[in-house]
Write a structure and sequence with these properties.
- By secondary structure, the protein is an alpha/beta fold.
- The chain folds into 2 domains: 2-200, 3-Layer(aba) Sandwich (Rossmann fold); 209-272, Helicase, Ruva Protein, domain 3, CATH 1.10.8.100.
- 40% of the residues lie in helices and 19% in strands.
- It has helices at residues 2-11, 28-38, 55-61, 77-83, 102-109, 123-133, 146-152, 163-168, 209-219, 227-235, 239-249, 262-272; strands at 24-25, 45-49, 66-71, 90-94, 112-117, 137-145, 172-180, 185-186, 193-200.
- α9 packs across α12 (262-272) and α10 crosses α11.
- The termini are far apart.
- It binds S-adenosylmethionine (SAM).
Length: 273
């Protein structure tokens, strides 16, 4: 398959666009393992974001009932016409997925899994789109830079733990399921990657997601400051009130945001209301 794809890309006169994060996967074993780890079955609809030359799309189409593949780069059209020829359960949509209204999309598709090898610059907005708006997303398997994978799956109190970790915990359980060396991409990027799997429906219970989000962002607004200082600055509250809320939650007076677990953020957001 490796020579196949490279030949097709060259015969189609395709020029790689670094700014779109175009590092394609050609390794058959890696493709098979991404599909297996995603948990997709023959009854499922899969949404692939950024299908590139269609190698992962093909592997998904061999397993799933239906694949809807988004790609922003229209110059891949002739390449995809060749790599996906004969796969009649695949629809390619040439569109920037970040600009796609998710609620509208979900009403026409129903439940679905997302599988993607993501370009670095869309990783966070895309994951947040599903965390904040994805009501019918059953699972998300994404290839991201390894450093980002470590941040997404970090434990409270570790240096990698951040606002995105706490936001993800709201909706899904997150696990780094595979490390992928840079040598398996074409062209080769400068960093290694990892596949992260999010299982939706396994998040924490919060009454008000917006209040939770505001609390998390306030707590991480300045990592060097204590939670008390960040609350005073971001919620425009008195120091006495911030100290009282922290005490009511049972946190140490000098606690920092990065030490709080997602459950503790949920408690804090309730107390702040
Ligand atoms: N899935 C292919 C693979 O694994 O070989 C390609 C992966 S490549 C890392 C990412 C692809 O996403 C590129 O083809 C790029 O053009 C596309 N892309 C980048 N931003 C996008 C966006 N906002 N919406 C849809 N596709 C996007």
């Amino acid at each position: 398959m490796e020579t196949d794809i490279k030949t097709i890309l060259s015969e189609c006169g395709f020029g790689f666009k670094k700014q779109l994060g175009q590092n394609f996967i050609t390794d058959k074993n890696l493709l098979a393992s991404i599909v297996a780890l995603s948990g997709v079955t023959e009854d499922d609809t899969v949404v692939e974001i950024g299908c590139g030359a269609g190698t992962l799309t093909r592997a998904l189409a061999e397993k799933a009932k239906r694949v809807i593949a988004f790609e922003v780069d229209k110059s891949l059209q002739p390449v995809l016409a060749r790599t996906l020829a004969g796969y009649d359960n695949v629809e390619v949509v040439f569109r920037d997925f970040l600009k796609c209204p998710l609620a509208e999309f979900e009403s026409s598709v129903g439940g679905y899994f997302v599988v993607a090898n993501l370009p670095y610059y869309v990783t966070t907005p895309l994951i947040m789109k599903f965390i904040e708006e994805g009501e019918k997303c059953k699972g998300l398997s994404v290839m991201v830079q390894e450093e980002v994978a470590d941040r997404l799956c970090a434990k409270a109190g570790s240096p990698e733990y951040g606002a995105i970790t706490a936001m993800v915990a709201l909706r899904a359980e997150c696990a780094k399921v595979k490390r992928v060396p840079r040598t398996l991409f074409y062209p080769r990027p400068n960093v290694d990657s990892a596949v992260v799997r999010f299982t939706f429906g396994k998040g924490i219970e919060v009454a008000d997601r917006q209040a939770y989000k505001k609390t998390v962002h306030a707590a991480f607004s300045s990592r060097r400051k204590t939670l008390e200082n960040n609350l005073v600055n971001c919620f425009n509250m008195t120091r006495a009130r911030a100290q009282q809320v922290i005490e009511e939650c049972g946190f140490p007076p000098k606690a920092r945001g990065e030490t709080l677990t997602p459950e503790q953020f949920a408690l804090l957001s309730e107390k702040l209301k």
